[in-house]
Amino acid sequence: MYKFSVLLVLLCATCNLALAITDGLLPNGNFEYGPKASEINGTLVKSSKAIPNWEISGYVEYIKSGSKQGDMLLVVPEGAYAVRLGNEASIKQRIKVIRGKFYSITFSAARTCAQEEKLNVSVSRGKSKPSDWEILPIQTMYSSNGWDSYSRGFLADDSQVDILIHNPGMEEDPACGPLIDSIALKLLYPPRRTGKNLLKNGNFEEGPYVLPNTSWGVLIPPHIQDAHSPLPGWKIESLKAVKYVDSAHFSVPEGKRGIELVAGKESAITQEVFTTPGRFYDLSFSVGDAKNYCEGSLVVEAFAGRQTLKVPYESKGAGGFKRANLRFRAVSKRTRVMFYSTYYTMTSDHSGALCGPVVDDCKLTSVRRKPGHS
């Protein structure tokens, strides 16, 4: 009887843990289940809980793919439905998580008729703590079809959190807001440094959830710090986003994930590592193109210590990469490693989509002997 009770407790604990781990869409995260006919007026949702699994506030519309707004055709990237958030409107869902674990949120958004659109993304951090807002500018579109996927990270310090997306817009037309679709969650496992690589997550394999039915990657917004980064180990220290790309839709030098620097010098990633002053180190990495029609002369600039290396890559937009190495001497106990693209580049398919070189397989190792010694 005692053994049976212990087994039952373990099974219950395992079930609770399994329910808390969600890698993929949130319940009704693609909004395919919509309001009843009595709870909607045209496209306007009338009840706060009319959309299954969600609580809404303000002017929220339930949009079917192919609908028109004036001369604008509203296209939904996944499935047949999405929601549109008008002025001060929001959608919210409470989810179960594992306390103390890191997560990333991924969602898709598209501008409609507003010019200065932004989104507030909030994750509540316990019943006694206020929401932690993060403002994501979505004025710049990076894909060719008008939709982009965005990510943000958070540390769960409660067993349940509220995920909320809010449009703070003040447009004259209350319906002039962004479309939202495909909201997903991923449990992150922050990697550690090893003797073979002093950089954490140097191959970028750990990162935000990539929506399988989209082909435009996931944007990691600017000014994201390491503690809450959806790209563990790295900071996005730039004015523009970087793009997280996967091998299912792009060419990636190593493994299944990489980073595309899509906005010139305004799109940078950095990481700070512990070093020994006076010791030499090698920073090696791959530079290539994502096989997304990003053609021409691409250049990645790498910084470490007081050294800089420019790595040119002549891209035909068909995939490929080259290796590069920067040897430097550490001048302090902490060394900042940075990568960014020298130039702004657009794809050659005349879509106007921003693109850039891909950085991957970054390794930082200590040089055991002095340069020139065998």
From TrEMBL:
<keyword id="KW-0325">Glycoprotein</keyword>
<feature type="signal peptide">
    <location>
        <begin position="1"/>
        <end position="20"/>
    </location>
</feature>
<dbReference type="InterPro" id="IPR006946">
    <property type="entry name" value="DGR2-like_dom"/>
</dbReference>
<dbReference type="Pfam" id="PF04862">
    <property type="entry name" value="DUF642"/>
</dbReference>
<protein>
    <recommendedName>
        <fullName>DUF642 domain-containing protein</fullName>
    </recommendedName>
</protein>
<dbReference type="InterPro" id="IPR052437">
    <property type="entry name" value="Pectin_Meth_Modulator"/>
</dbReference>
<keyword id="KW-0134">Cell wall</keyword>
<keyword id="KW-0964">Secreted</keyword>
<feature type="domain" description="DUF642">
    <location>
        <begin position="24"/>
        <end position="186"/>
    </location>
</feature>
<feature type="domain" description="DUF642">
    <location>
        <begin position="197"/>
        <end position="363"/>
    </location>
</feature>
<keyword id="KW-0732">Signal</keyword>
